[in-house]
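User: Can you model how iron/sulfur cluster sits in this protein?
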Amino acid sequence: MGKLEPMVKKCNSCKICEKICPTGAIHVDSNNNKKWYYFPRKCIKCYRCVDKCPRNAIMIFP
Ligand code: SF4
Ligand code: SF4
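Assistant: Here's the modeled complex, given as structure tokens:
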């Protein structure tokens, strides 16, 4: 099961991944230095976030 990580330089904090995630496994904090939080225990590996990220910023690591 892959672990997801954002490429911080590509991410523009649009929050599409946060909104599209069906389990609330991503939180993008645009106030706190654009931090991207990922909660693997909540993630069901649907990869919707990866598909819908407009900047291809989410990587899947094996
Ligand atoms: S969808 Fe992509 S660019 Fe937008 S906040 Fe998520 S990782 Fe960043
Ligand atoms: S793979 Fe699916 S469940 Fe996991 S963070 Fe992305 S949208 Fe959410």
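A couple of observations from the model: The first strand starts at residue 3 and ends at 6. Residues 13 and 30 are 6 Å apart (CA to CA).
User: Helpful, thanks.
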